[in-house]
Design a protein that fits this description.
heterotrimer; A alpha+beta; B alpha/beta; C alpha/beta; A: alpha+beta; C: alpha/beta; Glutaconate Coenzyme A-transferase; 2 domains; ten-stranded mixed sheet; eight-stranded mixed sheet; 16 helices
């Protein structure tokens, strides 16, 4: 998927993550701020990269502010932001590009 | 998946489907069902994002056998069809239809569910339905709603909207809900489905809540919608059968099993005339007792 | 050298401190030593005055100089003005290389961080630190070593002469012109002065600082004029709103209530729960809730408590008001109800030494049946961490945790299984503060684990309807939800030591390193 316009999903509440996607410069430009970066920084990065791969997003500036979210929440926020960027709210490919 | 229309549903806890801290482990409070809400709890501009949160929760969180019901948005909104898709794709146990006023409402959702079950390769019939009644019109047509679908396991009163429609409000006495409660219960029993009472939102008045639950328990409701885990134990306690009831129910079940094998239809237990009509009630008492942790027998 | 809780203590630290490594809770039982004593300047002349104009003058009179050790107490908690007030003056006088020996330091003391950076303060000994000081120490800004010691451990260090306090500054809510200090009355009423009593007895110079000067005699004195050299009156010694808060509203968080109920159910099913039992609990929501639910069961079963200890809050003081306990032993007051309760004749003030010092001839903690504690982390060896955050940053205090845990017959730790994403039950705690041999039971929202060393407790819970699990099962549940946490990346430099209550080294704290992603 193309990231054509900036979009944001999620909140800064505890156990949540706020994900912002913006049009990229031909690659994935990733920034993470996390309250649990020491213990889970690598895991969070992996989940985000896997999710972007599933969505076939490879040109994006993605900024994540994580407040201790579990993997399932991080995935949901990345997908939420990407589909918002595409203004797609219906016929989401559940179980396809969006999968666990 | 094993859709069970008759399972025990004493407590159904509302949770905002897009609050990660709420949906990660509500099973530790041991409700019978949780109700992940896409409707009122989720703001208009978050409807899209909430579905992703719901999908992954349904797919990845182990709810330890607690029933997962999802409340979709109303049929008068642009959201409900995609809500149905994500519910079915995620594999929820049941969908709660809000503001139900007719059998037609249930049929519309049912058609969408059938389509989604096909699309996502789910077994047809695996997604159950329940209907929330939130208006005078809905109460008057409760019987139609109860008989509208094979998938429908029960109806639930939604007191807030109902009382507005009745031009009154929640008083705490229950007087404003009397007619709806009775009508809906009678309809549900006549149709052989379950019936659930509305939420009690004043968390500072736990005594008032207890009284409310005691009265709806005596009326014959199967359970209550709840808004906070603090309410769970109170409901379960009130729905726990007494030892006397349990012993009697155990005798009834055993006797009926034995006597019907011998072809005897009517007999006595503890001096009371018993026939097959007592069987379901006695079974229900035993399953309530089991769920409440007070039955250690072999039934 | 590997110590009794499996921590590798670097040889250079052992050499530098002259300390032994931790070898078990009772290792130094029966140890014999001669107590230290202060250099005392006597007052015979009846014409003199102890009143001094300001902090600057009193520092001059006490002969402040580079390298001295200054004592402080933390009864004013996050409302304390004393440490900042004194250290600003010390800094302005150009003094360097000061050791702060405080019973605890908190966020209220963020303003002293620049004095750590510029070498005014080079050593810190405290129960723990929070806020920016913790951050500064963890980033290696303190020149010397931070020593974290328990409340009992601090008294031991001072009485044994391991730490000599040159000047103690005792903030006191009321004081007369001759130095009789009381924790009661005035604008900054904190109830008791328990942690400062050892400073009064052992510091060479003792300065009382008050904002409420009262006529002589301010009796009964909590710290006597016989120990006090000077008295300084200032505008304010603290912020009353942050010293003793209004009683916390009992929690309505079902997670905490559930853990409190588990705790009470456990307590009442032990053989220690009988007429005449003793009990201590902390100030966390679940601890307070468990006191409330325990009081209810005590009433139902007609069981009376002999004594309660604390760190007191309203629910403990309510036991006294409702005649459910014979007496309370008080080292600190956390809310106004507790401060008010100090007036009760059966509410006794005790010193930190009486409370918890392992190097006297027996402390109150040894007579405890139950203590209910919290923890940041507990590992599968039941070791607890209450000082260092899972991110490696110093962010808490030992307090009386290791003291009460060692003393009580039944030590219960309550912790929610996940703090956000961070598992509270883990394979190895980041830093050991309380050894697993002192911990009997861990209660979480997902289940309860009894230390296998306590087969007696396991036996008496056989038929109790509580969600018992092994500690490993609890860890596995946590990891299954959060994923297994990676170890924090530390630098090599040791910035602090966790001292066991007997003075041996329990663990070391290393400098934190900025996180970098794996390749």
């Amino acid at each position: 998927m193309e990231i054509t316009r900036p979009a944001i999903a999620g909140t800064l509440e505890s156990s949540d993550a706020q994900v912002t996607v913006e049009p990229g410069n031909g690659k994935i430009d990733f920034t993470l701020e996390s309250s649990v970066i020491n213990q889970y920084g690598n895991q969070i990065k992996k989940v985000i990269m896997d999710t972007l791969k599933n969505l076939e997003v490879d040109n994006v500036k993605i900024t994540v502010i994580d407040k201790g979210a579990l993997d399932c929440t991080i995935k949901a926020r990345v997908e939420g932001a990407v589909y918002r960027s595409n203004v797609q709210t219906e016929n989401i490919p559940w179980g396809g590009a969006v999968r666990s | 998946m094993n859709p069970n229309k008759k399972r025990l549903r004493r407590t159904m806890m509302f949770l905002n489907a897009q609050k990660p801290a709420l949906i990660k482990d509500p099973y530790i409070y041991k409700p019978d069902s949780i109700m992940l809400d896409l409707e009122d709890a989720v703001a208009q501009n978050q409807k899209d994002v909430a579905r992703f949160s719901l999908y992954h929760a349904l797919q990845e969180i182990d709810y330890h056998g607690v029933e997962r019901v999802v409340r979709i948005n109303g049929l008068d909104t642009p959201y409900w069809q995609e809500d149905v898709r994500v519910c079915v794709a995620g594999g929820c146990d049941a969908i709660r239809i809000p503001k139900t006023e007719s059998a037609e409402d249930v049929h519309r959702v049912e058609q969408a569910v059938i389509a989604a079950e096909k699309e996502f390769g789910r077994e047809e019939g695996s997604t159950l339905l329940m209907a929330a009644i939130e208006s005078a019109r809905g109460v008057m047509r409760a019987m139609d709603v109860c008989e509208s679908s094979e998938r429908l396991f029960g109806i639930a009163l939604s007191g807030g909207d109902y009382t507005k429609d009745m031009q009154t409000h929640i008083t705490g006495t229950g007087i404003e809900l009397m007619g709806a409660r009775q009508n809906m219960l009678i309809a549900a029993r006549a149709a052989g489905v379950q019936c659930f009472d509305t939420v009690y939102t004043n968390l500072d008045d736990m005594e008032g809540f207890r009284k409310d639950v005691e009265s709806i328990h005596l009326m014959g409701f199967d359970g209550k919608s709840i808004v906070n885990p603090r309410q769970i134990n109170i409901v379960h306690e009130i729905f726990t059968p007494t030892q006397k009831d349990i012993i009697f129910a155990e005798k009834v079940v055993k006797e009926i099993d034995e006597k019907s094998a011998q072809g005897i239809g009517v007999f006595t237990v503890d001096g009371k005339m018993i026939d097959i009509a007592f069987y379901d009630g006695a079974k229900r008492t035993i399953s309530l007792a089991k769920a409440s942790g007070v039955y250690k027998g072999e039934l | 050298m590997i110590n009794a809780v499996g921590r590798d203590i670097p040889e250079e630290i052992i050499e530098m401190t002259g300390k032994e490594v931790f070898q078990g809770v009772h290792y130094r039982d029966g140890y014999t030593y001669k107590k230290d004593g202060p250099n005392t300047k006597c007052v015979i002349n009846n014409q003199g005055s102890k009143l001094v104009e300001n902090i600057h003058e009193v520092l001059v009179k006490c002969g402040i100089k580079d390298g001295m050790t200054l004592g402080f107490h933390h009864h004013f908690r996050e409302g304390d003005y004393i440490v900042n007030m004194v250290m600003k003056e010390v800094h302005d006088m150009g003094i360097k290389d000061i050791t702060i020996c405080a019973s605890s330091l908190g966020k209220a003391h963020d303003p002293i961080v620049p004095y750590i950076e510029d070498g005014t303060i080079t050593n810190i000994q405290s129960s723990g630190v929070r806020g920016k000081i913790g951050d500064a120490i963890s980033h290696g800004k303190l020149k010397g070593l931070a020593i974290m010691r328990s409340h009992g451990g601090r008294v031991r260090a001072i009485e044994s002469g391991e730490t000599r306090i040159d000047i103690a500054f005792i903030g006191t809510p009321t004081c007369d012109d001759y130095g009789n200090c009381r924790g009661i009355g005035g604008k900054s009423n904190c109830g008791v002065l328990s942690y400062a009593m050892v400073d009064g007895n052992y510091a060479d110079k003792v300065v009382a600082i008050t904002d409420t000067l009262v006529p002589f005699p301010n009796f009964p004195a909590h710290i006597s004029m016989t120990n006090v050299d000077y008295v300084v009156e200032v505008d304010a010694i603290g912020d009353p709103n942050k010293i003793a808060t209004g009683a916390a509203k009992p929690t309505t968080d079902m997670r905490k209530l559930m853990m409190a109920d588990y705790c009470t159910e456990f307590v009442v099913n032990t053989p220690y729960f009988k007429d005449g039992f003793s009990y201590q609990t902390g100030v966390g929501g679940a601890s307070i809730a468990s006191t409330i639910s325990l009081a209810k069961i005590m009433k139902e079963r007609n069981v009376r408590m002999r004594f309660g200890v604390g760190g007191l809050t309203k629910p403990m003081c309510d036991l006294l008001i409702n005649d459910q306990v014979d007496c309370l032993l008080d080292t600190q007051d956390f809310d106004l109800a507790a401060v008010e309760s100090v007036k009760n004749l059966k509410h006794f003030r005790i010193s930190a030494g009486e409370y918890a010092d392992p190097f006297n001839k027996g402390a109150v903690v040894n007579k405890l049946d139950f203590v209910i504690l919290a923890a940041l982390e507990v590992d599968v060896h039941f070791n607890c961490n209450v000082v260092v955050g899972s991110d490696g940053m110093i962010t808490g205090a030992q307090g009386g945790h290791p003291d009460t845990a060692a003393g009580a017959k039944c030590t219960i730790v309550i912790a929610p299984l996940l703090q956000g994403r961070i598992p509270a039950i883990c394979t190895d705690v980041t830093t050991v503060t309380t050894p697993g041999e002192s911990i009997d039971v861990v209660i979480t929202d997902y289940g309860i684990a009894i230390n296998p060393a306590r087969q007696d407790l396991i036996e008496c819970m056989k038929d109790v309807n509580l969600p018992f699990k092994t500690i490993e099962e609890l860890r596995d549940i946590a990891y299954s939800m959060s994923g297994e946490p990676e170890k924090v990346q530390f630098g090599d430099r040791v910035v602090g030591i966790i001292e066991s209550r007997d003075g041996t080294i329990m663990d070391v704290v290393r400098e934190v390193k900025d996180f970098t992603f794996a390749e």
